[in-house]
Amino acid sequence: MSRVSTKSTLMPDAIRVGAFTVEIRSTAASWLEVGNHFVTTSVNGCYDREKHVIYIRPDASEQIQREVLLHEVLHACCWVAGLGRDSVSGKDEYDEEAWVTRVSTVLLGVLRDNAQLAEFVRAGS
Ligand SMILES: [Zn+2]
Fold first, then answer.
1. 115: how many CB neighbours lie within 10 A of its CB?
2. Spacing, Cα 115 to ligand 1 middle (Å)
3. Which candidate, 10, 50, 9, places its Cα nearest to that of 26?
4. 71 C-alpha to center of ligand 1: Å?
5. Which of 16, 26, 32, 94 is 20 to 30 A removed from 2 (C-alpha atoms)?
6. How far does the centroid of ligand 1 lie from the alpha carbon of residue 22, in Å?
7. What pTM was estimated for this model as a whole?
8. Spans of all domains in the chain
C-alpha cells in the first residue's frame, strides 16, 4: 500500500459526499483496476460514479495527488448534486454560476464532514 502521507496527514481511505460513502484508492493494484475499466490511464485520477470510488495514481507526486484528489472530489460533488450533461444533446445543462453555487455548498459540507480530507489536501502548500 502506497498512500501519500506527511508527518501528520494521511490520505483518507473513504469520505462522505452527501449521502454517499466514496472510497479512495491509491495503490498500484487499484490503478491496474482503473486500466481495466477505463479507456486510458494517462490521467492522474478518476471518479467511478457507479462504484463510488476515487482512484488516485499512486506514482504521482504528493502535490499532484492532493490536487487530483480534490479535483475528483468535485466530480463526486457534481454527481451527488445531479449536475451533468444533457443525455440527448450532450451539451452542458447548467451554467457556471449555478455549478459553482451548488458545488461550493456540497464541497463545504464534504470538507466539514471529512476533517482528514481537508487536512490532507491543505498540507504541502
Ligand atoms: Zn476531471
1. 10
2. 23
3. 10
4. 6
5. 16
6. 16
7. 0.78
8. 14-122
